[in-house]
């Protein structure tokens, strides 16, 4: 007996024959195997399928497993016969047999006239395959036509759509004819070979494979039918039957029979997955390839979304599979085509409303309710949790206690911004004073105030100063209550005047906590972006029912909620489509805690009133209603922007969280954004009608619901372009990074230059440098996108001409976004995305064996190295990067500046004791312009980091530095702000410096930390004025100019430093700062990075002002003297983002998404202008810390939980123990995570989020902790990860919500 075998290692093999004599001598088998391998290597075969006795495998999935010669794989000997005969219907004439409702004889006659011959099958199906069972599925005419999209509801169908519909109808007709031909051929083959059941499964497979190799897909399918018929009739199986399904799938795809191909692909995946339990190495390859078969079958059926998912799943397992990358691009294009024609939209059903009527009274769960069985999919429960239940139920008490402690220690820092919010505090204090006077003067009674969420006590002191008899301060958070008591005592208020109670607002009792009924209730600080999610209504309701007289004054007295349909999308970035990231626009809480970038919010409708709450009679029931959204412009509706207007007191004092002229007015009261379930396209073919003004108008119903502790907005029965993915682990700072246009453009230019240099240079074996290529030659460029994120930098490299790009990303959702972005831009042939810890990447797996020769990376935070950047670079150099590789960026320089950041007096009250909550051992990312401060010293360089191996030998490993900072202002230096310059290459750098400071620490403005010249005055020159003599704000004027005018003004300083004629006078190019040079200043100017003539700042400012005057004259002439200026009160659309200034020469205030790092000193000191102060800088692993010289300065106050010992020399502080308890809870959580027997933490977090208002949790802190824990689950759920996969890197704070 002969058996068909194949040879080869990990690649394609060559079939050869093994006789019975060979089986007895294994050495002969080995010789034939080697000979077959040599023969195959010299051949060019693209589509080979093989068979052998004992195994059914593809040629590129070889395993040597020779079956005994005496028996076949089904357990029967080859000499043993088995009876089998055709069915009666198979042997009879075809007359009278119907197929899909048609007479088979008529179909065959039509086939002979129209259909191509059997051997003229479609082109090779190398990229897809599926198999079917013995009995072919039946398809009715209606089913066959159901895949053709209907033109109904699409408006006017263009010619392309009509041609496509006609082609699909023709394809459906040909598919019916092919199925009929398959039936006829199958019956003929069964009739010609009536004893085929006597052969083994391997022999039948060999016959089918031979037909398939010959390109006869029809005969191959019929031969596979013999195999499956024998297996079914004899109840036989085979461990590698999935391979036969995979092979037959290719035949179906070649013939265009996509329904059968899809069936076989799914069957192949199921069998292969089962097989992997016993033989993971052998079946894994086929299981991965089955996704390609499934994807191409779905593409053929025009089910592009499902195909996209199939290819994405396959690329997770094999990111380098070109076949699936091509399929992903094809399916992505198909989705876009469908969306453009109004097809392929997705539907999402809302949660059941049976238990949520139009109005339902809110109740609380019973004490014995099993909380682990409660589900909150709709996030608007009608039964709420009580704090007692959360404290005592063993399923959630650890989560609740952790959230409580974390909010305790995070809230004080947030109140620094509350205290500095003059817009908010001025109006609230005014309303309190008016309410107190109203009680005393008009009602003739003492004002007794209940201040709910008192914070540090500012509002309580305002009430006492206005004449209140007594104030009860209720604070839910421990350290805010402690600071409130301390601040009140510091400012001279006694216990007879004020009482501070540390309790939840609903736990307050009369007499025990509140000495007498109150007549003024202040609850302004219970407000957040979502209005209700901090517990405003439960707190006010409890106070009105139990603690107040009849008809008290409530501040605020009423609230009106407005909603507006908006579009928030990520635009094209440097010409790349990165819209795949928009499918992850979701946030668990309305309170994101950071400002909104309103430049990316496009209003699609006028605001409408959603709710109005009278807090004298707060709602006690859930409510739902539908309002019509009137659209005023087309776009993609994916979010609802809502805000509220507060009537603080009798319509005399109002406060709003909305936008004024498209910008936020209060830094602590912001509008909230709720993303819809997906994206809804609002276009002209969706029912627009023109009104009298010529605007396009349409309306859609918006469902508004609330349950007294949370609001929500939904669209019922909507068709979505894409459904969003609610992934709490997704790092939202990537939206801000994509919006950082200047950073992206600088990277793009640097990558383009780096690729061009690598193409023109090649390494030589004698040196580590490069030598030019000869004319016509071009070196290969293989790029590693380290920590690729959304894949932007890798796509830049591919478009610039790189031969291959590998992006490595640990976060699975980010990697999926990167793959979709790559497919959308048609770069799948060059770019591959791997889900892997970058530090564990290996050559030959994630990166080619020779390693990458160009590295692009951006895993830097505000501190530059806080995300293990140096560790990652060193690990890459050891594992996957060539020694002479090019890096973008190639180096970085860190700068520091001393500042004073203290809160002294607010509204004339002393708050110095509150400053102890500022200090932290680690630096925080901030925008310095948002932190009230005074700059005290000039910038100073600290460290230089060189990322290439050659540069790292020039001081990049320095760990300590002693700095002499030159003091320019006298003050109290308690903080160090530091930033960095990223040197992308020799020609370009970008800086994260605060506004007014450029590359190299050069000061452009006097208020940015000293003058550029020691003789320059610290005051700015007179501001330019317009033709009417009115002073012009330079920053606002530049923002209103076009890009060309702004660039001319920005280049004024460069011209001044280059000589009168603008020639290259006094310029010395330099890659890095090499020390001070007399008369020169190191900066990035018009000629690149280097030393320029140090012209006094006043001269540059004068040239800048001159050009602004000229630009003002041009603007006036264009406007015309007789044309009145636009009315500033007229409503207009939000301003669009203006073009950035030239990165090389601009003195701009636009900042990068990194922000600056601010570290508060452990010892602070008073400094005097004109002197110097010594600062010590130390790099500890991935942290940079600063301190004053030993013995200088005084110790600053610290938060209670930062003090380890207290109450005696040997007694640990209870505040420290509370925080340490949180660390123990995290360790316990990680231990439970490894055993995989507990539900994910997301279940508990969703419960906390749904009941945040009734539990009085802070939604912003809850969202932060939620994100941190799901990221912990993600990292620790991976099979292996390195120290570089830190929680800080994945939970990086976002400084602006874009």
Radius of gyration over all CA atoms, rounded: 36 Å
Count of β-strands: 49
The assembly state of the depicted protein chains is single chain
Discrete helix count: 33
Residues in helices, as a percent range: 25-40%
* Overall average residue pLDDT: 77
The secondary-structure class comes to alpha+beta
Measure the end-to-end span: 71 Å
Shape: globular
Spans where pLDDT lies below 50 across 5 or more residues:
1-24, 36-157, 352-356, 684-697, 765-769, 951-956, 1011-1036, 1050-1065, 1114-1148
Report the sheet-strand fraction. 15-25%
Largest sheet data: 8 strands, antiparallel
Written overview of the protein:
It is a single chain. By secondary structure, this protein is α+β, with helices and mostly antiparallel strands. Helices cover 34% and strands 20% of the residues. It contains 33 helices and 49 strands. The strands form 14 sheets. Strands 34, 37, 38, 39, 41, 42, 46 and 49 form an eight-stranded antiparallel sheet that branches. Helix 4 (104-114) crosses helix 6, helix 9 runs antiparallel to helix 10 and helix 16 runs parallel beside helix 17 (458-465). The longest helix is centred in the first third of the chain and has 34 residues, at 159-192. It is globular and about 110 Å long. The two termini are 71 Å apart. The N terminus is likely disordered. Residues 1126-1141 have a biased composition (Low complexity). This is Protein arginine N-methyltransferase. Residues 140-169, 1118-1141 are annotated as: Disordered.
């Amino acid at each position: 007996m002969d058996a068909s075998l194949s040879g080869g290692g990990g690649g394609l093999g060559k079939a050869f024959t093994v006789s019975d004599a060979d089986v007895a001598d294994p050495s002969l088998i080995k010789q034939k195997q080697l000979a077959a391998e040599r023969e195959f290597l010299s051949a060019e075969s693209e589509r080979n399928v093989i068979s052998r006795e004992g195994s059914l495998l593809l040629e590129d999935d070889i395993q040597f497993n020779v079956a005994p010669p005496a028996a076949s794989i089904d357990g029967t000997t080859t000499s043993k016969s088995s009876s089998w005969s055709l069915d009666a219907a198979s042997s009879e004439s075809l007359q009278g047999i119907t197929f899909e409702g048609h007479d088979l004889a008529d179909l065959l006659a039509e086939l002979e006239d129209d259909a191509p011959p059997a051997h003229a099958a479609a082109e090779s199906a190398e990229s897809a395959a599926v198999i079917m069972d013995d009995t072919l599925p039946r398809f009715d005419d209606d089913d066959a036509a159901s895949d053709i999209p209907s033109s109904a509801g699409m408006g006017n169908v263009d010619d392309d759509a009509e041609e496509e519909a006609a082609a699909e109808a023709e394809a459906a007709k040909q598919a019916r004819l092919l199925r009929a031909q398959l039936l006829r051929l199958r019956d003929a083959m069964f009739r010609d070979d009536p004893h085929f059941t006597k052969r083994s499964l391997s022999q039948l497979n060999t016959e089918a494979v031979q037909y398939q190799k010959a390109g006869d897909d029809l005969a191959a399918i019929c031969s596979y039918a013999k195999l499956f018929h024998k297996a079914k009739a004899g109840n036989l199986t085979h461990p590698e039957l999935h391979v036969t399904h995979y092979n037959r799938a290719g035949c179906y795809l070649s013939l265009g029979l996509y329904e059968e191909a899809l069936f076989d692909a799914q069957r192949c995946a199921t069998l292969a997955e089962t097989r992997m339990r016993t033989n993971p190495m052998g079946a894994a390859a086929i299981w991965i390839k089955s996704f390609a078969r499934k994807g191409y079958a779905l593409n053929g059926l025009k089910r592009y979304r499902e195909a996209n998912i199939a290819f994405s799943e396959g690329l997770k397992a094999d990111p380098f599979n070109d076949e699936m990358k091509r399929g992903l691009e094809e399916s992505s294009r198909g989705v876009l085509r469908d969306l453009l024609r109004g097809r392929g939209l997705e539907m999402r059903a809302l949660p059941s409303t049976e238990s949520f009527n139009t109005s339902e009274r809110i109740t609380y769960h019973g004490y014995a309710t099993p909380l682990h069985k409660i589900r909150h999919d709709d996030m608007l429960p009608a039964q709420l949790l009580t704090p007692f239940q959360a404290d005592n139920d063993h399923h959630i008490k650890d989560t609740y206690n952790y959230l409580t402690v974390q909010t305790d220690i995070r809230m004080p820092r947030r109140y620094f911004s509350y205290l500095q919010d003059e817009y908010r505090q001025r109006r609230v204090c005014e309303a309190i004073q008016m309410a107190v006077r109203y009680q005393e003067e008009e009602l003739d009674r003492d004002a007794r105030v209940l201040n709910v969420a008192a914070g540090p006590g500012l509002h309580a002191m305002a009430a006492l100063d206005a004449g209140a008899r007594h104030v009860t301060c209720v604070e839910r958070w421990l350290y805010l209550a402690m600071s409130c008591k301390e601040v009140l005592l510091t400012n001279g208020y006694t216990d007879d005047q004020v009482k501070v109670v540390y309790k939840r607002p609903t736990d307050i009792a009369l007499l025990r906590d509140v000495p007498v009924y109150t007549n003024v209730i202040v609850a302004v600080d219970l407000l957040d972006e979502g209005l209700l999610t901090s517990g405003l209504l439960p707190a006010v309701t409890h106070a009105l029912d139990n603690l107040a007289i009849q008809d008290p004054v409530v501040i605020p007295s009423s609230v009106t909620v407005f909603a507006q349909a908006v579009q928030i999308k990520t635009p094209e970035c440097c010409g790349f489509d990165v819209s795949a990231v928009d499918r992850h626009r979701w946030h668990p809480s309305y309170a994101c805690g950071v400002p909104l970038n309103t430049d990316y919010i496009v209003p699609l409708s006028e605001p409408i009133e959603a709710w109005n709450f009278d807090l004298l009679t707060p709602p006690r029931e859930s409510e739902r209603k539908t309002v019509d959204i009137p659209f005023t412009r087309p776009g993609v509706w994916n979010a609802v922007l809502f805000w509220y207007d507060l009537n603080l007191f009798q319509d005399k004092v109002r406060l709003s969280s909305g936008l004024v002229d498209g910008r936020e007015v209060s830094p602590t009261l912001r509008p909230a954004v709720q993303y819809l379930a997906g994206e809804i396209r609002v276009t002209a073919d969706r029912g627009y009608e023109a009104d009298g003004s010529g605007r396009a108008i349409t309306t859609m119903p918006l469902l508004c619901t609330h349950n007294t502790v949370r609001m929500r907005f939904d669209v019922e029965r909507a068709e979505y372009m894409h459904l969003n993915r609610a992934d709490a682990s997704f790092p939202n700072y990537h939206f801000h990074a994509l919006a950082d246009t200047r950073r992206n453009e600088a990277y793009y230019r640097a990558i383009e230059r780096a690729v061009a240099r690598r193409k023109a240079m090649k390494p030589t074996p004698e040196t580590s440098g490069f030598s030019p290529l000869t004319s016509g030659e071009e070196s290969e460029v293989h790029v590693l996108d380290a920590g690729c994120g959304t894949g932007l930098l890798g796509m830049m490299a591919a478009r610039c001409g790189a031969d291959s790009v590998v992006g490595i990303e640990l976060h699975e959702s980010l990697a999926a976004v990167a793959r979709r972005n790559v497919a959308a831009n048609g770069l799948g042939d060059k770019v591959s995305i791997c889900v892997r810890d970058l530090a564990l990447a290996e050559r030959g797996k994630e990166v080619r064996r020779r390693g990458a020769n160009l590295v692009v990376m951006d895993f830097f935070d505000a501190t530059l190295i806080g995300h293990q950047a140096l560790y990652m670079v060193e690990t890459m150099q050891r594992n996957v990067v060539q020694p002479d590789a090019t890096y973008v960026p190639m180096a970085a320089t860190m700068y520091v500046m001393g500042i004073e950041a203290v809160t002294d007096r607010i509204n004339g009250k002393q708050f110095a004791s509150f400053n102890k909550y500022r200090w932290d051992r680690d630096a925080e990312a901030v925008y310095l312009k948002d932190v009230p401060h005074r700059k005290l010293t000039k910038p100073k360089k600290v460290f230089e980091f060189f990322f290439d191996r050659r540069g790292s030998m020039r001081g990049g490993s320095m760990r300590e530095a002693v700095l002499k900072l030159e003091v320019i202002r006298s003050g109290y230096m308690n903080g160090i702000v530091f930033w960095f310059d990223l040197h992308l290459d020799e020609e370009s750098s970008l800086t994260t410096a605060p506004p007014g400071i450029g590359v190299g620490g050069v000061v452009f403005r006097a208020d940015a930390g000293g003058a550029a010249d020691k003789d320059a005055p610290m005051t700015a020159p007179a501001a330019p004025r317009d033709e009417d003599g009115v002073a012009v704000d330079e920053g606002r004027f530049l923002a209103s100019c076009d890009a060309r005018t702004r660039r001319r003004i920005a280049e004024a300083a460069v011209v001044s430093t280059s000589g009168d004629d603008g020639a290259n006078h006094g310029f010395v190019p330099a890659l890095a700062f090499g020390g001070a040079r007399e008369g020169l200043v190191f900066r990035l100017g018009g000629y690149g990075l280097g030393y320029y003539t140090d012209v006094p700042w006043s001269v540059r400012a004068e040239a800048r002002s001159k050009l602004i005057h000229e630009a003002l004259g041009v603007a006036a002439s264009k406007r015309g003297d007789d044309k009145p200026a636009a009315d500033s009160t007229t409503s207009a659309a939000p301003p669009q983002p203006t073009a950035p200034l030239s990165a090389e020469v601009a003195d701009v205030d636009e900042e990068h998404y990194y922000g600056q790092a601010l570290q508060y000193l452990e010892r602070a000191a008073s400094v005097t202008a004109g002197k110097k102060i010594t600062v010590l800088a130390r790099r500890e692993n991935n942290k940079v810390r600063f301190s004053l010289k030993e013995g200088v300065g005084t110790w600053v106050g610290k938060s209670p939980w930062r003090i380890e010992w207290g109450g005696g020399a040997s007694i640990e502080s209870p505040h420290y123990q509370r925080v340490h308890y949180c660390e123990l809870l995290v360790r316990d959580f990680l231990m439970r995570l490894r055993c995989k027997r507990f539900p994910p933490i997301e279940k508990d977090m969703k419960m906390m989020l749904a009941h945040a208002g009734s539990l009085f949790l802070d939604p912003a802190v809850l969202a932060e902790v939620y994100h941190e824990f799901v990221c912990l689950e993600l990292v620790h759920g991976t099979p292996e990860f390195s120290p570089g996969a830190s929680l800080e890197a994945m939970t990086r704070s976002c400084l602006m919500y874009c």
